[in-house]
Design brief:
Structural class: mainly beta
Helix content: under 10%
Largest sheet: 5 strands, mixed
Strand content: 35-45%
Shape: elongated
Order of helices and strands: EEEEEEEEEEEEEEE
Length: 205
């Protein structure tokens, strides 16, 4: 084929066929017909919505977050949810949105459960036969803070009337894990006309 004066010359190439068509640093001149650049197809996926993007979950407890699509889906869409670290938190595996569903008013509930103290994030990925949500993803969409808990010596305390034990009883509280910083806890009675807490504040160091 004829040499094209539009192609640049390459010099100083490594002595390798894989990196340069020339060897021994001989000047290389490219030949051939310029091929058309192939068309690149770009699919702009639709996205997701969440009622909260940062949540705090109490120890051995759960929280409910609402999720939805930000665009009315062209087809039935399944949204799969995963936690970055399932040893810290678990989440509802998937939710379904129907074709043409009014996602401006319709939400799905997902449950996030605190497995152990720590931080992780929830990611979403959808599956659909249509391009709008076929493979759409949202990485680390919901930040999850799983909080530390406390251990109680008793869940039921009998407080005798005076003079027995001076009308008092004791409750021991300890963190379930050693705290990384000073922690202050406030303790109160739901019925102060019957019982009061003599030590309303304790500090763990």
């Amino acid at each position: 084929s004829p040499q094209s004066d539009k192609w640049p010359e390459a010099t100083g190439c490594a002595n390798s066929v894989n990196t340069c068509p020339a060897s021994n640093n001989v000047q290389a001149v490219y030949f051939g017909i310029v091929m058309p650049i192939p068309q690149v197809t770009v699919v702009a996926h639709a996205g997701f919505k969440a009622s909260s993007t940062v949540v705090y979950v109490q120890r051995q407890n759960y929280i409910v977050v609402k999720v939805s699509l930000d665009t009315i889906p062209l087809g039935d869409t399944v949204v799969f949810l995963t936690a970055g670290d399932s040893s810290i938190a678990t989440v509802t595996e998937s939710v379904l949105f129907l074709r043409g569903e009014n996602v401006t008013t319709v939400w799905r509930n997902i449950t996030i459960f605190n497995v152990r103290p720590g931080q992780t994030a929830i990611s979403l990925k959808s599956s659909s036969q249509e391009l709008d949500y076929g493979g759409a993803e949202a990485h680390n969409a919901v930040q999850v803070n799983c909080q530390q808990g406390f251990q109680l010596s008793n869940l039921l305390i009998h407080v005798q009337a005076k003079p027995t034990n001076l009308g008092t009883a004791f409750l021991a509280i300890t963190p379930d894990l050693p705290p990384s910083h000073n922690v202050s806890m406030t303790i109160s009675s739901s019925k102060t006309n019957q019982t009061v807490v003599q030590t309303p504040t304790v500090v763990f160091v």
